[in-house]
Amino acid sequence: METLKLHERFQRKLHEALEANEMSQGDLAKKLGVSRQMVSLYLSGKRMPGLDIVEKFSLALELPDAASLIDESEISHTVA
Description:
single chain; mainly alpha; 434 Repressor (Amino-terminal Domain); globular
Protein backbone atom coordinates (compact mmCIF):
# COMPACT_ATOMS: atom_id res chain seq x y z
CA MET A 1 0.00 0.00 0.00
CA GLU A 2 1.26 3.44 -0.92
CA THR A 3 1.95 5.77 1.98
CA LEU A 4 0.99 9.36 1.27
CA LYS A 5 1.94 12.46 3.20
CA LEU A 6 -0.90 14.24 4.94
CA HIS A 7 -1.16 17.03 2.35
CA GLU A 8 -1.11 14.49 -0.50
CA ARG A 9 -3.95 12.54 1.12
CA PHE A 10 -5.90 15.78 1.57
CA GLN A 11 -5.36 16.67 -2.07
CA ARG A 12 -6.48 13.23 -3.31
CA LYS A 13 -9.43 13.03 -0.92
CA LEU A 14 -10.56 16.53 -1.88
CA HIS A 15 -10.67 15.47 -5.54
CA GLU A 16 -12.63 12.33 -4.57
CA ALA A 17 -15.11 14.31 -2.47
CA LEU A 18 -15.72 16.84 -5.24
CA GLU A 19 -16.40 14.02 -7.67
CA ALA A 20 -18.61 12.11 -5.22
CA ASN A 21 -20.66 15.26 -4.61
CA GLU A 22 -20.68 16.21 -8.30
CA MET A 23 -19.30 19.63 -7.40
CA SER A 24 -16.99 21.88 -9.37
CA GLN A 25 -14.17 23.93 -7.89
CA GLY A 26 -16.40 26.95 -8.36
CA ASP A 27 -19.27 25.32 -6.45
CA LEU A 28 -16.98 24.53 -3.55
CA ALA A 29 -15.46 28.01 -3.61
CA LYS A 30 -18.93 29.55 -3.31
CA LYS A 31 -19.77 27.34 -0.32
CA LEU A 32 -16.49 28.31 1.34
CA GLY A 33 -16.71 32.00 0.46
CA VAL A 34 -13.33 31.96 -1.29
CA SER A 35 -12.15 32.25 -4.88
CA ARG A 36 -12.03 29.30 -7.26
CA GLN A 37 -8.31 29.99 -7.55
CA MET A 38 -7.88 29.39 -3.81
CA VAL A 39 -9.61 26.00 -4.11
CA SER A 40 -7.40 25.25 -7.10
CA LEU A 41 -4.27 25.91 -5.02
CA TYR A 42 -5.34 23.24 -2.51
CA LEU A 43 -6.33 20.78 -5.24
CA SER A 44 -2.99 21.19 -7.00
CA GLY A 45 -0.97 20.87 -3.79
CA LYS A 46 0.49 24.36 -4.17
CA ARG A 47 -1.03 25.37 -0.87
CA MET A 48 -0.99 23.17 2.21
CA PRO A 49 -4.04 23.15 4.49
CA GLY A 50 -4.10 23.75 8.21
CA LEU A 51 -6.56 21.80 10.33
CA ASP A 52 -8.97 24.74 10.27
CA ILE A 53 -9.06 24.57 6.45
CA VAL A 54 -9.57 20.80 6.48
CA GLU A 55 -12.56 21.34 8.79
CA LYS A 56 -14.05 24.03 6.52
CA PHE A 57 -13.69 21.81 3.45
CA SER A 58 -15.29 18.84 5.21
CA LEU A 59 -18.26 20.95 6.29
CA ALA A 60 -18.70 22.43 2.80
CA LEU A 61 -18.57 18.93 1.28
CA GLU A 62 -21.00 17.61 3.92
CA LEU A 63 -18.60 14.89 5.06
CA PRO A 64 -19.11 13.18 8.42
CA ASP A 65 -15.96 14.75 9.89
CA ALA A 66 -12.69 16.44 8.98
CA ALA A 67 -10.79 13.16 9.28
CA SER A 68 -12.62 12.02 6.12
CA LEU A 69 -10.30 14.29 4.14
CA ILE A 70 -7.05 13.04 5.64
CA ASP A 71 -7.47 9.37 6.55
CA GLU A 72 -6.78 6.39 4.31
CA SER A 73 -10.40 5.27 3.78
CA GLU A 74 -12.29 5.97 0.60
CA ILE A 75 -14.70 8.88 0.27
CA SER A 76 -18.27 7.76 -0.27
CA HIS A 77 -21.11 10.21 -0.18
CA THR A 78 -24.58 9.58 -1.52
CA VAL A 79 -25.97 12.49 -3.48
CA ALA A 80 -29.59 13.06 -2.50
